[in-house]
Amino acid sequence: PTEPPSEYQGLVKHTGGCHCGAVRFEVWASADLHIFDCNCSICKKKQNRHFIVPASRFKLLKGAESITTYTFNTHKAQHTFCKRCGVQSFYTPRSNPGGFGIAPHCLDEGTVRSVVIEEFNGTDWEKAMKEHKTIKNMSKE
């Protein structure tokens, strides 16, 4: 196999997608995932657990035409999902509009070593963002 680009040193290439296969992506991230479990109104209803990566580490391999987007409130978060099967395999989080929130349960098997889940109090979003030490920088290189 070819060596990953130097900026991806220590990261692994995960692949994944929606249920029907119309949407496929690859993402460079740690094999040890830090997952956010948010309790805001939409994340709670769709069980949106996710890890955050910079946009430069995410690549949509296929399915741009199969994706539709839902927004509400501030319209900063872009809740993208497959038009055919309804699965949200990734989205653009309000906390990190320069990155992507990736659904770990939509990754193909074999590249995740461990998972840590952190609860995020999205019902009090502004306060939670102000108090959180690292979330704002997760989409930075």
Automatic annotation (TrEMBL):
<dbReference type="InterPro" id="IPR006913">
    <property type="entry name" value="CENP-V/GFA"/>
</dbReference>
<dbReference type="GO" id="GO:0016846">
    <property type="term" value="F:carbon-sulfur lyase activity"/>
</dbReference>
<dbReference type="InterPro" id="IPR011057">
    <property type="entry name" value="Mss4-like_sf"/>
</dbReference>
<dbReference type="GO" id="GO:0000776">
    <property type="term" value="C:kinetochore"/>
</dbReference>
<dbReference type="GO" id="GO:0046872">
    <property type="term" value="F:metal ion binding"/>
</dbReference>
<dbReference type="GO" id="GO:0051301">
    <property type="term" value="P:cell division"/>
</dbReference>
<dbReference type="GO" id="GO:0031508">
    <property type="term" value="P:pericentric heterochromatin formation"/>
</dbReference>
<keyword id="KW-0488">Methylation</keyword>
<keyword id="KW-0479">Metal-binding</keyword>
<keyword id="KW-0132">Cell division</keyword>
<comment type="similarity">
    <text>Belongs to the Gfa family.</text>
</comment>
<comment type="function">
    <text>Required for distribution of pericentromeric heterochromatin in interphase nuclei and for centromere formation and organization, chromosome alignment and cytokinesis.</text>
</comment>
<dbReference type="InterPro" id="IPR052355">
    <property type="entry name" value="CENP-V-like"/>
</dbReference>
<keyword id="KW-0995">Kinetochore</keyword>
<keyword id="KW-0862">Zinc</keyword>
<dbReference type="GO" id="GO:0005634">
    <property type="term" value="C:nucleus"/>
</dbReference>
<keyword id="KW-0137">Centromere</keyword>
<dbReference type="GO" id="GO:0032467">
    <property type="term" value="P:positive regulation of cytokinesis"/>
</dbReference>
<dbReference type="Pfam" id="PF04828">
    <property type="entry name" value="GFA"/>
</dbReference>
<dbReference type="GO" id="GO:0051233">
    <property type="term" value="C:spindle midzone"/>
</dbReference>
<keyword id="KW-0539">Nucleus</keyword>
<keyword id="KW-0131">Cell cycle</keyword>
<keyword id="KW-0963">Cytoplasm</keyword>
<keyword id="KW-0498">Mitosis</keyword>
<dbReference type="GO" id="GO:0033044">
    <property type="term" value="P:regulation of chromosome organization"/>
</dbReference>
<keyword id="KW-0158">Chromosome</keyword>
<keyword id="KW-0206">Cytoskeleton</keyword>
<feature type="domain" description="CENP-V/GFA">
    <location>
        <begin position="14"/>
        <end position="126"/>
    </location>
</feature>
<keyword id="KW-0597">Phosphoprotein</keyword>
<protein>
    <recommendedName>
        <fullName>Centromere protein V</fullName>
    </recommendedName>
</protein>
